[in-house]
Amino acid sequence: MPKKKTNKAAAKRFKKTATGKLKYHKAGSGHLLAGKTRKRKRNLRSAGTLSKTETKRVQGMLSV
C-alpha cells in the first residue's frame, strides 16, 4: 500500500504541540479592525487549539 500524502494546505495552517494538540491562528484579524473591540482583537492574537473531534480529522490530513 502506498504512503499517505500530507495535505499541504493543512500543514501550513496547523502546528502540533508537544502534548499532541493542534494549534492554529484565529481568523478575523486581517482587516476591518476599527470596528472590533480592543478585547476582541487581543483575543484573536492568541493561538487557538482544536477540539478533540477536529484534531482527529486534521491528523488524518497531516499524516501524523
Cα(first) to Cα(last) distance is 17 Å
Distinct helical segment count: 3
Helix and strand composition category: alpha+beta
Order of helices and strands: HEEHEH
Main sheet specs: 3 strands, antiparallel
Radius of gyration: 15 Å
User: How many strand elements?
Assistant: 3
User: How much beta, percentage-wise?
Assistant: 5-15%
Strand order of the largest sheet: 1-2-3
Offer a quick outline of the entry:
With 64 residues, this protein is of the alpha+beta class. 39% of the residues lie in helices and 12% in strands. The chain has a domain at 35-64.
Describe this structure in words.
- This protein is α+β, with helices and mostly antiparallel strands.
- It has a domain at 35-64.
- Helices cover 39% and strands 12% of the residues.
- It is built from three helices and three strands.
- The protein has a three-stranded antiparallel β-sheet with strand order 1-2-3.
- The longest helix is centred in the C-terminal third of the chain and has 11 residues, at 52-62.
- The radius of gyration is 15 Å and the shape is elongated.
Q: Mind sketching the topology for me?
A:
Blueprint: H1 8-13, E1 14-16, E2 22-24, H2 38-45, E3 48-49, H3 52-62
Descriptors:
12% strand, 64 residues, alpha+beta, single chain, 3-stranded antiparallel beta sheet, elongated
